[in-house]
Write a structure and sequence with these properties.
The chain is of the alpha+beta class and about 260 residues long. The chain contains 6 helices and 8 strands, in the order βαββββαβββαααα.
Length: about 260
C-alpha cells in the first residue's frame, strides 16, 4: 500500500532552480514539472504551479523537503492545501474508488499518472477557493449597489480588484495543460483508461468548469462596475465644468457691477 500526499504550497515554484539544487534520480523533467525517484518505491513530483506531490514519504521526509523547496517558491502559503490518496498494488484488476486506486502493476508511469491527477485536484481546490472569494466580494458590492443605488468602491480599489481577477485567470490559462491527457496515455490504452477514471473520480472537468464560470461571472460584474464608475466620474467632470463656467459668469457680472 502506497500513500500519496499532494500539497499546494505556493503560487509558483521555480522549476529551473529546483532542478539545479535538488540532486536525485530524475525520471522526467521539462519547464513545467519534475518527477524524481528518490528511493526504492519513493517518488517526488514538483509542478511549477505551486504543487509538490509525495509518494511513500514519511512525515519527516515531507517536512524536510518542504523546507528545502521554500526558497524557490513565489508567495509561499502559511498553510498549504492538501490532498491524500492511496495506491494498492498487485491487485487482480485495475479498480478506482473514492480515495483509493487498486492497480495490477506499479510501474513508474502508472504511479506518475496517479500523482499527476492528485496534484491537479489540489490545484483545482486552490483555484476554486480563490474564485469563491472573488465571487463573495463581487456579491457584496452588488448588494451595496442594490441597496444604495451606487457603488461603495473607489476607482483604485476597483483596479486592484480587476487585477486580482485577471491574475487568477492568467494563472489558470498558463496551467491549462494540466487538464489535458498526458502524452504517455495517447498510445497506451491501459494508461488512458486509468487517467480517465482518475479524472472522473476527482471530478476534474466539472470542477474546472465551475471555476471558469465563476470567473466569467466576476468579469461580467467588473465590466458593469467599471462602466458605472466611468459614468460617475463623467458626471463629476460635468459638474466641475458647470461650476467653472458659473464662476466665470459670476466673476464677469461682479466686475460689471462694481466697475
Amino acid at each position: 500500500m502506497y500513500q500519496v500526499f499532494s500539497y499546494q504550497i505556493a503560487d509558483n515554484i521555480d522549476i529551473k532552480q529546483v532542478k539545479g539544487a535538488f540532486k536525485s534520480q530524475i525520471y522526467f523533467a521539462d519547464a513545467d514539472e519534475l518527477f524524481y525517484k528518490t528511493d526504492t518505491d519513493q517518488f517526488l513530483y514538483i509542478f511549477k504551479y505551486g504543487v509538490v506531490c509525495f509518494l511513500n514519504f514519511s512525515d519527516l521526509g515531507v517536512s524536510a523537503f518542504l523546507q528545502f523547496i521554500a526558497p524557490y517558491c513565489k508567495n509561499l502559503f502559511p498553510e498549504p492545501l492538501t490532498e491524500e490518496f492511496e495506491i494498492e498494488t498487485n491487485a487482480k484488476e485495475n479498480k478506482i474508488g473514492y480515495n483509493k486506486i487498486e492497480i495490477i502493476k506499479s510501474d513508474e508511469e502508472v504511479l506518475r499518472l496517479v500523482m499527476l491527477n492528485v496534484s491537479e485536484s489540489v490545484a483545482l481546490d486552490y483555484y476554486s477557493d480563490q474564485t469563491n472569494k472573488l465571487l463573495e466580494e463581487t456579491n457584496y458590492h452588488t448588494q451595496i449597489l442594490e441597496k444604495k443605488g451606487r457603488l461603495d468602491i473607489s476607482g483604485i480599489n476597483l483596479k486592484k480588484y480587476i487585477g486580482k481577477t485577471l491574475l487568477i485567470k492568467n494563472r489558470i490559462a498558463e496551467n491549462l495543460y494540466i487538464f489535458d491527457s498526458p502524452p504517455e496515455t495517447w498510445e497506451d490504452e491501459s494508461l488512458n483508461k486509468i487517467h480517465n477514471d482518475l479524472s472522473r473520480t476527482f471530478d476534474l472537468q466539472e470542477r474546472f468548469r465551475h471555476v471558469s464560470e465563476g470567473l466569467a461571472i466576476v468579469k461580467e460584474n467588473l465590466e458593469l462596475f467599471k462602466d458605472l464608475l466611468q459614468h460617475r466620474n463623467s458626471n463629476v467632470l460635468e459638474w466641475i465644468v458647470i461650476g467653472l463656467i458659473t464662476f466665470e459668469v459670476l466673476h464677469v457680472i461682479f466686475e460689471e457691477i462694481f466697475k
